[in-house]
Amino acid sequence: MKKLLFTFALFLGTVACLAQKPLTFSKVIQKDGLTAQQLYDATKNWFVRTYVDSRTVLKDENPGKELTGNGNIPFKTNMIFSSLEGHIKYLIDVQFKDGRLKLTLSDFRHDPVRKAMYDNNLGVLVDSLPMDLKEIGIEGANRKAGYKYFFKNGKPLCESVFERLSTSLEKFVDKREVETKDEW
Prior knowledge:
Layout: H1 2-18, E1 25-30, H2 36-50, H3 54-57, E2 58-62, E3 66-75, E4 86-97, E5 100-112, E6 123-124, H4 141-181
Antiparallel strand pairs: 1-5, 2-3, 3-4, 4-5, 5-6
Helix pairs in contact: 2-4
């Protein structure tokens, strides 16, 4: 009986290690000398200047501690995979402490523009492509090829958007720091 329990526990541990995790990017930006409230104010201003309509992006505010919102990346495809064209929606979260802030983009989800004859909503983008797509609920030849295309092109797109946003936020906070120190 002990061997059976041990084998079952070992099996569950192995499966848990191989499971894919939702795609997430995170970066801590150090800004010594600035309080959490100053970083919060600068980041809120960055949201207003970065997103077309920041009021639709920002969903939850915890003044001086956290900003949370929803972003949207247009996902263009070639003619063969035109049914996958749409948006990759994501959650953007910024947390603040004195001297630093943490930018996190997570929960990347595919949202097609138009419906196809098959289920073309591919759901959550994961950090690594599994050997068998059935593990993440993708079945059928059309969906498998579509998800592989989505993973191959969507993950690098999400990475580039994260790099662009994190660099933009860091430069904006640097610029704001200089502007607040200027005496005019």
